[in-house]
Design a protein that fits this description.
The structure holds 2 protein chains of 2 kinds.
Chain A: E1 27-28, H1 30-44, E2 48-52, H2 62-67, E3 72-74, H3 79-91, E4 95-101, H4 110-119, E5 125-129, H5 147-152, E6 158-160, H6 165-177, E7 183-186, E8 192-193, E9 208-211, E10 216-220, H7 224-236, E11 242-246, E12 249-251, H8 255-265, E13 268-275, H9 280-291, E14 296-301, H10 311-317, H11 322-335
Helix pairs in contact in A: 1-6, 3-4, 7-11, 8-9
Chain B: H1 8-32, H2 38-42, H3 44-54, E1 69-72, H4 78-88, H5 93-99, H6 129-143, E2 149-154, H7 161-172, E3 178-184, E4 187-188, E5 191-192, H8 193-196, H9 202-208, E6 212-217, H10 221-232, E7 239-244, H11 267-279
Parallel strand pairs in B: 1-2, 2-3, 3-7, 6-7
Antiparallel strand pairs in B: 4-5
Helix pairs in contact in B: 1-3, 1-4, 1-5, 1-11, 3-4, 3-10, 4-5, 6-7
The chains are: A alpha/beta, B alpha/beta.
Chain lengths: 336, 289
């Protein structure tokens, strides 16, 4: 049942990487998983088309463009038009993926997402790259920290935040192949630890327990799930036993797994690379307030904008790194 | 079908239908108690010409895959869309006249593709329709389909940036299966367009983006048909028809008055409007007068 060395109490069903806590764990940017999945989808389904707003290389949609030039559409720096065109394509039977930075897509084209896509139930897949503070030196303008809050209120829309490149690939395939709803998928720019494997279960709308525990449930979304696991392992040394949940689908959210985690542990820490107001953590506590109210501490961007700096310096400075998660766990324990 | 000439007898027939559509719009707006009057009345000839002569459609099979696509960008004029669809047989005229904007009906205040047979897109927030139409036009090109795509827009929504993004894109991509129609009635909510935000020289601006532009009297059915047919013959460029229309057309106290943009007639006004429309006998400054 236990993971390789037995001391980490990882869920063996999660089939996480054997190199999980080793220095040589592979580092891959989640956007690479997106780009890879687009090419696979292009091979499998002639209706898959990809659009970009002058950002083909950095969203990795250029990989699709090279292989399927006739199904690749360059719209220029015009995200509103891109969303609308995608809606028209989808209403004509296509499965368009629109790729840009999350600050513009859905940041710039939210109204088009709302009316032309979500209200119309147009099967459009919105990919927001360079999300989170880990965008780094570009600074606050380009660090999307509000995108999940913006889209989470929209009916019909799926919202997915993969935790690494492998999960980004699976999520991209799933939103194309398993649903006809529009979807928003977000991922960061940086290379981050590839800690899941092809065998790690992934199902839209189902959160996965990566580590079982009974004192505090750390419910994370995106790349910081890795930090949550690191925090859990550190805390074991102090006798604190944390559950770690990978809550990748924010809409529709997995009410049961979240409520079960809260019920078992009696305290929750949410972790995300996003404003603490309105994001994945807010989605979690909305569920818990209704299903199983317990003390919560939220780890995320605390109602401020970012700045320039190295990605992981910023994560530390703004209180989203492993140490911050450890502090949050200790804080929430006191509220139990 | 697009490309087909129109005979005088048919124009006379369509003018009568147009008049009935106007009367239905007035009745529906009165029953609704809210909604827009001027825009729908001004665009009746355009809709009549499209749905009764130009568009290749099957009212009993609204989702027929090879149908021509028509999208409405300025969704607030949808009483004219519903009225025309009803006359064309997509649903009953009575449904439109009695249930516009009411609870638990298919006649929503603004168009919704999932609600109403024949309605291809959702719209209302201005500036979105042309992009949607471009997506449909691209899909036709990718699939080697012959269907034509039309998008009706208001002039006021040319204040929106998205429209110009779309104009730029369609020109670049030579979308010759796409025809835009601008309802150039010169009014918007806060006043006349040239006061609120001047658009002229509108034709030159659109031509500069590699569109072919045709200007017509939008209240003349023959001119609408001939412009669409001309558009069909233009290759390598999208076509924009600037349809000069009279807002509130057919009802003298509504014509050319921007205050009628966003309000319905009351009972007395509706009575007066219907009386005028009945006595017009199906001819509104027609070439047959």
């Amino acid at each position: 049942m236990l993971f390789d060395d037995g001391k980490h109490m990882l869920n063996s069903q999660a089939k996480l990487s054997k190199k999980l806590f080793k220095d040589d764990i592979e580092q891959v940017a989640p956007r690479d998983g997106y780009g890879k999945a687009l090419v696979e989808l292009g091979d499998k389904n002639p209706n898959v088309v990809v659009l970009t707003g002058d950002l083909s290389e950095s969203t990795r949609s250029n990989w699709f463009a090279e292989k399927f030039p006739k199904r690749f559409i360059e719209v220029g720096v015009a995200e509103q038009n891109m969303m609308g065109i995608a809606a028209g394509l989808a209403l004509s039977g296509k499965i368009p993926f629109i790729s840009s930075y999350a600050t513009f897509n859905p940041g710039r084209n939210w109204d088009q997402l709302r009316v032309s896509v979500c209200y119309s139930m147009a099967n459009v897949k919105v990919a927001g790259a360079h999300a989170g503070i880990s965008v780094g030196p570009d600074g606050a303008t380009h660090q999307a920290l509000e995108d999940v809050a913006m889209v989470r209120a929209l009916p019909n829309l799926y919202v997915v935040i993969p935790c690494d490149a492998i999960e980004a690939r699976k999520a991209t395939l799933a939103i194309a192949e398993e649903i006809k709803n529009p979807a928003y998928i977000r991922f960061g720019r940086e290379k981050t630890p590839q800690f899941t494997t092809d065998q790690t279960p992934f199902k839209l709308g189902r959160a996965e327990v990566f580590r079982d525990g009974s004192d505090v449930a750390i419910i994370g979304s995106g790349i910081l799930v890795y930090n949550a696991l690191q925090a859990a392992v550190e805390l074991v040394k102090e006798g604190i036993d944390c559950m770690v949940v990978n809550n990748h689908t924010i809409k529709p959210i997995d009410r049961k797994t979240l409520a079960d985690a809260a019920r078992k542990c009696g305290a929750v820490v949410t972790v995300e690379e996003h404003q603490i107001n309105g994001g994945a953590g807010s989605a979690v506590i909305e569920v818990l307030a209704e299903e199983c109210p317990v003390p919560v501490v939220r780890v995320g961007m605390n109602d401020s904008f970012g700045e320039s700096g190295q990605p992981f310096e910023l994560i530390e400075k703004y209180g989203m790194g492993t140490d911050s998660i450890i502090k949050a766990v200790k804080k929430v324990l006191k509220k139990k | 079908m697009i490309g087909e000439d129109i005979r005088e007898a048919k124009i006379r027939k369509l003018e009568k239908i147009a008049n009935q559509i106007r009367q239905d719009i007035i009745k529906a707006l009165l029953n609704a108690g809210s909604g827009h009057s001027a825009g729908p009345l001004g665009m009746v000839e355009v809709f009549t010409a499209l749905y009764f002569h130009i568009l290749n459609i099957r009212p009993k099979q609204p989702k027929w895959p090879d149908r021509d696509r028509f999208t409405l960008s300025n969704g607030h004029i949808n009483p004219v869309w519903y009225a025309t669809l009803a006359h064309r047989g997509f649903f009953a005229r009575r449904e439109f006249v009695t249930s516009l904007r009411k609870l638990n009906t298919r006649m929503l205040g603004h168009p919704h593709n999932l609600a109403t047979p024949g309605v291809e897109n959702s719209g209302g927030p201005l500036g979105q329709g042309l992009s949607q139409a471009i997506g449909m036009s691209l899909a036709a090109k990718m699939d080697g389909k012959k269907y034509q795509v039309f998008c009706a827009m208001s002039d006021g929504e040319y204040d929106e940036g998205q429209i110009w993004e779309a104009i730029m894109f369609a020109g670049k991509n030579k979308l010759d299966n796409l025809t835009g129609i601008i309802d150039r009635n010169n009014i918007q909510i806060d006043g006349v367009t040239e006061d609120v935000m001047p658009l002229e020289p509108l034709r030159a601006k659109i031509e500069a983006f590699n569109w072919h532009v045709i200007e017509i009297d939008g209240n003349n059915i023959r001119q609408v048909v001939e412009a669409c047919n001309q558009a069909y013959g233009i290759y390598e460029r999208p076509v924009m028809i600037i349809a000069h229309t009279v807002p509130g057309k057919g009802v003298d106290f509504m014509e050319q008055d921007y205050k009628w943009h966003g309000i319905p007639p009351n009972k007395d006004q509706a009575k007066a409007a219907l009386k005028q429309l009945r006595t017009l006998g199906g001819r509104i400054r027609s070439e047959h007068e």
